[in-house]
TrEMBL record:
Gene3D superfamilies: YVTN repeat-like/Quinoprotein amine dehydrogenase. Coiled coil: none annotated. InterPro entries: Haem_d1_sf, Host-pathogen_enzymatic-act, WD40/YVTN_repeat-like_dom_sf. This is Virginiamycin B lyase.
Amino acid sequence: MSALVPSAVFPVEGHPDWMAVTSDGVWVTSSSADHVVFLNANTNKPDRVVTVHRPCSGLAVGFGSLWIPSCGDHTLVRVNGRGGAPQATINAGPADPEGGIATGAGSVWLVTSAASELDRIDPHTNQISARIALPAGSFNPVFASGSVWVASNAGNALVRVDPKTNRVAGSTSIGPMPRFLTVGAGSVWVLNQGDGTISRVDAKTAKLLATIPAGIPGFGGEIAFGAGSVWATVSGFLITRIDPTTNRVIQQFVGKGGDSIRCAHDSLWLTFLSDAKVWRLPIPSR
């Protein structure tokens, strides 16, 4: 951990958690402070705040907007992606505080019930255009290679949804208690909380390509892709780095561990919920 020195530390009121990347910075939620804050990557200063009642369950950027699930009002809030001005409030609340949200195939995707119902939201009408039944305990959608992928935490599987039919098109058995997902190098990468492995699934064929023993089990944390690597953060391990050309862990930094991680603007971004801070770190040299 001593080798990692932040290039910037942002104090964020409350409990900073989820992040979403834009062309000029990073948005971050703070549920206990009832707002979302924009961290400017050019100035290394926060410069916009959007009020939302208990923002949770991820953030998504798309269609010129920032999409913010609200656990407080059980709605989905849409604001302008540049200035943060309110645009719409949609009656589609998150099923879980860590349930995730995604954009793709001309839509916004959000799991909205404990029974694992995936809502498809049309950004042109701000209405739900489809509801798709998923296996119980499914969360954290991502979009890759024309499909929506969702982790079935209870079923130890990665579920594929076809946006053309609005139906589940198949599933791939992966590690125990899969939760957080990211996309990169033609694959969907899944952090398995049960045993701390990372599953790699081909985004075109849905074939399991690798199960990587990362040694990072436990709740919380997150996973991201960028700068040619997969990055994970969990309690006790600040950063774990995986090389997608070898499917091996190539770096691991012991430390408190973050609550969310992103790779953007030539940096790693980590939120620390209990410390009310966000770190911006130079990408570690190999």
